Amino acid sequence: MAFMRACSRFDVEPDRPFQFEWDGDPIAIVALDDEYFAIDDTCTHDRFSLCDGYIEGDEIVCPLHLARFAIRTGEVRMAPAYEPLQTYPLKLEGDDIYIDPQAHDE
Predict the structure, then answer these.
(1) Interatomic CA distance for residues 34 and 47, integer angstroms
(2) C-alpha distances out from residue 6 to 47, 52, 99, Å
(3) What pLDDT shows up at residue 41?
(4) 8-31 per-position pLDDT tens digit
(5) DSSP per residue over 43-87, as a string?
(6) How many CB atoms lie within 10 A of CB 103?
(7) How far apart are CA 19 and CA 26, in angstroms?
(8) For the purposes of burial, counting CB atoms within 10 Å of the CB of 13, is it exposed (0-12), middle (13-18) or buried (19 or more)?
(9) pLDDT score at 15
(10) What confidence tier does 36 reach under pLDDT thresholds 50, 70, 90?
(11) What is the CATH number assigned to the segment(s) 4-99?
């Protein structure tokens, strides 16, 4: 795994995803219950930024058509999306958040 620094934990607000871009692809870093998760930032339904959406409970909601995804797993929780989001390995070292954008969790 090739972890790289994405941001500080202070960049990620509890109710607002932080967008990290790697090789032109946006990745959303989300704080949830004192844990951090990295998921694709693009809705699988209509290619819209999830960082422009909102967090509700343990879900991220696309602002365009209100598709919902589980933050921890990327699974679709509500249509119109039907494909899950990719998730990425993440680790916290001190106050820094590292992700491996080339590896996908399944």
Answers:
(1) 28
(2) 22, 19, 6
(3) 97
(4) 999 999 889 999 999 889 999 999
(5) -TTT--BGGGSEEETTEEE-TTT--EEETTT--EEETT--SPPPE
(6) 14
(7) 6
(8) exposed
(9) 86
(10) very high
(11) 2.102.10.10
For residue 66, give the nearest of 46, 83, 88 by alpha carbon: 46
At residue 10, what are phi and psi to the nearest 5 degrees?
-75, -15
CA nearest 15: which of 50, 65, 56? 56
Two tokens at 52? 């422009």
Residue 60 CB: number of other CB atoms within 10 A? 27
Q: What are the tens digits of pLDDT across the range 49-95?
A: 999 999 999 999 999 999 999 999 999 999 999 999 999 999 999 99
Which of 44, 101, 34 is closest to 74 using CA atoms? 44
| CA gap 53, 58 in Å, rounded | 13
pTM given for the model: 0.91
